[in-house]
């Protein structure tokens, strides 16, 4: 018989039947509901947080799965069987052991009635490696003895049944147990074989040594292809049932270390007075929280992908001015959420006062230079590069999972404060963090008990093996979780036996333990995508020199790149690829938004005249360009450079002065737009000019000759007339009277 278990959440399944599965979320029958209610009532003094889930196997084959919130429909033909200890599996002296078993029928056939047997190990597991092996079906867990049973009635297709098992405090099987983590299992016989779900029972020491624990919780808004969230998106996210509201509800009043995406407060602040009321209230609430905190990359961008794309340090936003509407900002009585904008000298006292980029991104009292690469992406090179950075006179601090260290990869507990070469690290326990994350995405309390118990069991070993050094755990990024699931995961770690919560500063100032970073695979697709996005950004940076304020293009481009590299896209590969492709297309459209309209052939009949050339500008901003013209024949002199300002979203005529020389013929003039920094803008064009400028000289000569001829003819005629008159007069005078 094999068993299955996941370190974080363990679920047993029967062999696929090929039948369609629908999980309708049917609640437990009355008998099961009463049983679990009684169980929870008995266990109330023990339980500080809701319980956790376990794992199971069927007929020699098993599967492990994590149920997100809301729980998905079970796979086709599966029966899921989960053991969840109450009170996170913690059983102190003179306390009883309470568990629930959940059967979810995802087949199209009703299950057969059967008995469930709860078994408990007689000796504790020796270390966390043995616990991992037990939960992952790699060991039998030692000698187990039956300690309780319950009967499972028929479960209809798509239905669910929850029953409880209670081992009383006075039961001899619990008496005199030494502190430790004991293997626990529940078995269920089916016509197709035995299902077994594994978990653990934790007996804490009476006077445990106290170890500090830092609990890192991200505050993020999910994947986005836009530079900042819209007002509509913010309204939804900060509504009473919104994801951002649930996240704040979960961390409010806890000691969690907040890892905040600065793109969220920035999106609220750029809206100024038009920001949704719920978003403004959310931001004010965030700023009032006493939790220690640090800023993630803008958009929670993938740090590793950026460095593997060739950058020497992670990207930062350039400017968010393009997202600001001046109508939402006033010089007097500014109501921008967050820090008060720094006044700037201006000739106009009524001009709007805009917050700077640093003010927009402020998350309130954050420690600078903290980086959290995606789990498992921190290669030695990434860690070394980040470790060399200094921001605001603070050395960088990088979060990595324990499995990224050689010791942690072998199953050992790693101090939460470490150093690898010159790189300062916060090392979070991978096993505990994985289990906490699994618990945070589960809606149902009965199922949540399994991963919470796993987290508590691993944390028990971590505390014992920490040698007084602090421990760091995370409840990793995920939007599909309720405030109850997330808060329960946080309080489970904070209230585990032998731990005391620590702030970020408390952990960071502890003496570090030397570790070695293990090799990790490079996510080549993401690195290549980051490289391609950076190439497009470089093209836009050059193109943007046609604007008076280049940040109107470069600012949104940088923000969108960071959003597209956000780690929230990891589970959505297909959608991410579509978003990246759309961004490439948008970049190409922007680069083609300014250019020369194809000109028509021109006939030049004068020695000097301007050639009209039309410049197209599809941008919402006016642009400053220089039109360069180069003729291919000496018959025509052309002004080499003509400066022009093209109006926003319009076609603008540019007059290019030309001068014809002697001779006729066809001349081709090559045209190219450039910015004032000589960057080429748009595709080059050519205009054909038919030069007939010498017709003007010929016409003048001919006209002059004609005029001269007419004048000469008039003079001759006048002289002849005068002579004729004189002759006639002389003849009259000579005649005798």
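-> sequence recovered:
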């Amino acid at each position: 018989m094999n068993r299955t278990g996941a370190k974080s959440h363990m679920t047993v399944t029967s062999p696929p039947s090929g039948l369609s599965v629908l999980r309708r979320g049917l609640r437990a029958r009355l008998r099961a509901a009463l049983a679990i209610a009684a169980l929870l009532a008995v266990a109330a003094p023990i339980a500080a947080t809701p319980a956790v889930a376990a794992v199971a196997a069927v007929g020699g084959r098993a599967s492990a799965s994590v149920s997100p919130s809301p729980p998905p429909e079970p796979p086709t033909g599966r029966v899921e069987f989960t053991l969840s200890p109450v009170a996170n599996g913690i059983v102190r002296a003179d306390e009883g052991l309470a568990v629930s078993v959940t059967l979810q029928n995802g087949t199209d056939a009703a299950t057969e009635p059967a008995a469930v047997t709860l078994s408990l190990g007689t000796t504790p597991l020796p270390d966390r490696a043995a616990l991992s092996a037990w939960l992952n079906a790699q060991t039998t867990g030692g000698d187990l003895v039956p300690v309780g049973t319950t009967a499972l009635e028929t479960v209809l297709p798509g239905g669910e049944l929850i029953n409880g098992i209670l081992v009383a405090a006075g039961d001899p099987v619990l008496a005199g147990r030494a502190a430790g983590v004991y293997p626990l299992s529940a078995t269920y016989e089916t016509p197709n074989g035995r299902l077994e779900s594994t978990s653990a029972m934790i007996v804490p020491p009476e006077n445990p040594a106290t170890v500090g624990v830092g609990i890192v919780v991200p505050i993020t808004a999910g994947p986005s292809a836009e530079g900042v969230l819209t007002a509509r998106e913010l309204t939804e996210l900060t509504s009473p049932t919104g994801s951002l509201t649930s996240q704040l509800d979960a961390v409010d009043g806890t000691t969690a270390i907040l890892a905040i995406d600065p793109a969220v407060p920035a999106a609220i602040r750029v809206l100024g007075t038009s920001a949704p009321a719920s978003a403004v209230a959310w931001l004010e609430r965030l700023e009032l929280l006493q939790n220690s905190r640090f800023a993630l990359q803008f958009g929670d961008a993938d740090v590793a992908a950026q460095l593997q794309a060739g950058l020497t340090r992670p990207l930062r936003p350039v400017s968010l001015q393009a997202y600001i509407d001046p109508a939402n900002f006033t010089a007097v009585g500014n109501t921008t959420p967050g820090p008060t904008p720094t006044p700037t000298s201006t000739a106009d006292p009524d001009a709007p006062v805009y917050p700077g980029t640093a003010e927009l991104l402020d998350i309130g009292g954050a420690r600078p230079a903290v980086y959290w690469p995606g789990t498992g992406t921190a290669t030695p090179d990434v860690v070394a590069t980040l470790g060399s950075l200094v921001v605001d006179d603070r050395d960088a601090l990088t979060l990595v999972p324990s499995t990224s260290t050689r010791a942690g990869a072998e199953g050992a507990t790693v101090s939460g404060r470490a150093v690898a070469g010159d790189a300062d690290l916060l090392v979070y326990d991978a096993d505990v963090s994985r289990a906490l994350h699994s618990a945070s995405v589960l809606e149902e309390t009965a199922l949540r008990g399994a991963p919470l118990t796993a987290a508590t069991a691993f944390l028990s070993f971590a505390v014992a093996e920490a040698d007084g050094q602090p421990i760091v755990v995370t409840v990793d990024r995920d939007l599909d979780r309720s405030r109850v699931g997330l808060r329960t995961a946080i309080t489970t770690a904070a209230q585990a036996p032998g731990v005391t919560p620590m702030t970020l500063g408390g952990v960071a100032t502890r003496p570090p333990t030397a570790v070695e970073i293990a090799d990790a695979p490079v996510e080549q697709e993401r690195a290549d995508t980051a490289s391609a996005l950076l190439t497009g950004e470089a093209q836009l940076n050059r193109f943007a020199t046609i604007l008076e304020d280049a940040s109107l293009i470069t600012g949104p481009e940088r923000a969108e790149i960071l959003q597209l590299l956000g780690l929230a896209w990891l589970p959505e590969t297909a959608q991410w690829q579509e978003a990246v492709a759309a961004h490439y297309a948008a970049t190409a459209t922007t680069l083609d938004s300014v250019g020369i309209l194809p000109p028509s052939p021109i006939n030049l009949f004068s020695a000097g005249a301007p050639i009209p050339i039309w410049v197209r500008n599809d941008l919402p901003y006016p642009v400053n360009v220089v039109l360069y013209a180069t003729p291919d024949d000496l018959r025509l002199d052309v002004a080499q450079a003509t400066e022009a300002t093209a109006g926003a979203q319009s076609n603008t005529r540019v007059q290019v002065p030309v001068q014809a020389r002697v001779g006729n013929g066809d001349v081709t003039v090559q045209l190219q737009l450039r910015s004032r920094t000589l960057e080429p803008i748009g595709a080059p064009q050519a205009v054909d000019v038919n030069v007939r400028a010498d017709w003007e000289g010929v016409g003048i000569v001919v006209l002059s000759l004609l005029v001269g001829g007419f004048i000469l003819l008039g003079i001759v005629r006048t002289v002849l007339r005068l002579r004729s008159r004189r002759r006639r007069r002389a003849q009259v005078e000579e005649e005798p009277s």
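Residues 250 and 484 are 7 Å apart (CA to CA).
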